From TrEMBL:
This is Endonuclease/exonuclease/phosphatase. Keywords: Endonuclease, Hydrolase, Nuclease, Signal. InterPro entries: Endo/exonu/phosph_ase_sf, Endo/exonuclease/phosphatase. GO terms for molecular function: endonuclease activity.
């Protein structure tokens, strides 16, 4: 349809002319990189303030060689119009802004412009109609052991430069279209935009893991290569910053590009939701029974909570109106009384008293709290903030069993109880191996033993953890394969120590009631967590209660709803267990988000005497 090439231009470019398909080649990096090319002919499909997008007028039949090309250079865009067919010389380059990112193939230093014809029709390729659909599971042939395989970064795309297989691997799919003008039909937003307005979406092609909020959940090692980021609009406008998961965007047309660690589509103009997702999420569907028949235990990473946190009232309100005032709340990211002031303060009494006070004002429900302040700046997080895990608990329902607050360096131990009650803790609460290397510059886990207040007091244990973060990992679309999963070795050690402590309790009493919960900064199925489960003997409560796979998430990162927060229980607590994640925060725009994690609430029967174990 676009074979209109003026004879003069063909003559001028005939000797060394390269097609766009030849420039892209059938691999990630151009076979012509760092070479000058002449007489490159293409239809101008789009422009932005950095350059011009071309489409070949002589496409080959090879689906692995993109027919699109970005021409980088300041003045060309002023001399051509969308719809022009041009011939150009330039230099083939591979560009990236960071060595963990993938490369963009581009033509730079355009010169010898010849406009061959104008006003040609420009028709975008509809993804899934004029192209294959994006692969739904695998990212790259170089991801040994899957995209979360360990060891990480055993290959680099930029050195292996594999031949593209766009029907099997997601990165190969997007690379095979790079530079092209495409349309996504019926796009839904699957998260909130980042600070630059970049917004992840899914199209009308096959997508796995769609959840009830309209986002896309990671299912095992399937981290959803079929989703795509929408970057800065070509016309210089800005994507809205107040949109969220589940908003319906209609069709999006733009050019396929690679920058800042991700393939992305630069839309012709700013995204506009046509239908906004409705903003309410119901409270947990069950309440505490107040006795051992149904004790509610929750887990919540409350995001750097300190006495003056603007989101403190929101946390209190969520605890009351959505979590329905659970009997025990395992909190993570509780900062000290002076927040991030780096002033030697380590106590969190004021932080926790403030939260407890707000809850009481809202509901009349009275909470106590317990925690162990660490040594100044030894537990990671923001300098001076001294984040730690802490417990809120309702003294009308549960009490600490033989309380004996440990100090920051006191090593908790599992002891045989003197009164025939089975295992007990040396410190209650007490930290687990606080001086081990695994916890250097990281939050220490806090073990506690509890007794139900009403009726025959039943004993149970909790361990509240916050494992080291994934910060510094490379992106799902980045150069190292499998991507760098930063902190995984440390999380492995942390999981092992935690599991061995719990295993000691269960070794003394296989029917012991144990709950491990918190922000583990890792996915079920990846080594730290699979190790934790197998070594401890605990069960994943998501499995026990059968939460739908697509609803197993507590966090939104890039394209994926994912589960970083978990609750694991001993087998003796599985009968009649209830457990729900409340997706109040992942499914929100920035302003309406309270924390960056969702909270989870369980109800567990602590009465049982489990003879078969
Ligand atoms: C490529 O083109 C540039 C700009 O015209 C020129 O400076 C350079 O020498 C050329 N390189 C080669 C290898 O021809
Ligand atoms: C292209 O179309 C525009 C508007 O229809 C017209 O003004 C212009 O003359 C056309 N240019 C050429 C080169 O045909
Ligand atoms: C969707 O929400 C945005 C932001 O709150 C608002 O500006 C816009 O008008 C809404 N659009 C529709 C279609 O309701
Ligand atoms: C406040 O912190 C101090 C020092 O850690 C501790 O002794 C005290 O018991 C705390 N108060 C409350 C109400 O927990």
């Amino acid at each position: 349809m676009l074979k209109v090439i003026a004879p003069l231009a063909v003559a001028a470019a005939s000797v060394a002319a390269e097609t766009i398909a030849q420039i892209n080649g059938n691999t990630f990096l151009s076979p012509l990189r760092n070479q000058n090319v002449t007489g490159v002919v293409g239809l101008v499909t789009a422009k932005n303030n950095q350059g011009v997008f071309l489409r070949s007028t002589e496409p080959d039949e090879d689906p692995t060689t993109s027919e699109g090309l970005f021409v980088f250079g300041g003045t060309l865009r002023n001399n051509v119009q969308v719809g022009d067919i041009i011939s150009i010389d330039g230099r083939v380059e591979e560009y990236r802004s960071n060595n963990l990112h993938g490369y963009l193939t581009e033509l730079t230093g355009p010169r010898n412009l010849q406009v061959i014809s104008s006003n040609n029709t420009v028709t975008p390729l509809v993804i899934g109609v004029d192209t294959p659909s994006p692969p739904t599971e695998l990212f790259s042939s170089l991801d040994e052991g899957g995209v979360f395989g360990a060891p990480n970064a055993v290959n680099l795309i930029s050195t292996s430069n594999p031949e593209l297989d766009p029907t099997t691997y997601g990165l190969d799919f997007w690379e095979s279209l790079v530079g092209e003008l495409v349309t996504i039909k019926d796009a839904y937003q699957i998260g909130r935009p980042n600070q630059f307005g970049d917004t992840w979406v899914r199209g009308d092609w096959k997508v796995t893991g769609v959840n009830s909020q309209g986002g896309v959940t990671m299912l095992g090692s399937d981290a959803n290569p079929e989703t795509i980021l929408i970057g800065s609009p070509l016309d210089g406008s800005r994507n809205p910053s107040d949109t969220k998961m589940g908003d319906y965007l209609g069709d999006i047309t733009g050019t396929v590009y690679n920058a800042f660690g991700f393939y992305r589509i630069l839309p012709t103009t700013r995204l506009t939701p046509l239908v906004n997702s409705t903003t309410d999420f119901p409270p947990v569907s069950f309440e505490s029974r107040g006795t051992c028949r149904g004790i509610t235990v929750a887990s919540y990473n409350a995001r750097n909570l300190e006495p003056r946190s603007p989101h403190m009232p929101g946390v209190a309100e969520q605890i009351v109106t959505k979590m329905l005032s659970p009997d025990i709340i395992c909190l993570q990211e509780v900062q000290d009384d002076s927040g991030e002031a780096n002033d030697g303060v380590v106590t969190a009494n004021l932080t926790l008293t403030t939260l407890v006070g707000l809850i009481e004002e809202l509901s009349g429900v009275v909470y106590d709290f317990t925690e162990i302040a660490g040594l100044d700046n030894q537990d990671g997080g923001a300098p001076g903030g001294n984040i730690r895990v802490a417990y809120l608990y309702r003294p009308d329902v549960v009490e600490l069993y033989q309380p004996n607050l440990g100090g920051p360096l006191d090593v908790n131990e599992v002891l045989e109880g003197a009164n025939g009650e089975g295992p007990v803790l040396k410190f209650n609460p007490g930290r687990i191996e606080p001086s081990a290397d695994a916890w250097a510059n990281s939050r220490k886990p806090l073990a506690a033993m509890w007794k139900t207040v009403k009726g025959t007091g039943k004993l149970f244990f909790t361990v509240n953890v916050h494992f080291t973060s994934k910060g510094g990992s490379s992106t799902l679309h980045g150069d190292p394969r499998p991507p760098i999963n930063n902190g995984i070795e440390k999380r492995n050690d942390q999981a092992t120590i935690t599991a061995d402590f719990i295993a000691q309790i269960l070794a003394l009493d296989p029917a012991a009631r144990m709950i491990l919960s918190g922000d583990m900064n890792e996915f079920v199925g990846v080594a730290p967590i699979s190790t934790l489960l197998s070594r401890s003997g605990l069960l994943d409560l998501e499995d026990v209660v059968g939460i739908q796979p697509a609803e197993r998430y507590t966090y939104l990162f890039d394209n994926n709803c994912q589960a970083l927060d978990h609750m694991f229980i001993s087998p003796s607590l599985s009968r009649g267990a209830l457990y729900e994640h409340l997706h109040l925060n992942t499914w929100q725009n920035y302003n309406n988000q309270v924390s960056d994690h969702d909270m989870s609430v369980a109800r567990l029967n602590m009465c049982g005497c489990v003879s078969k174990l």
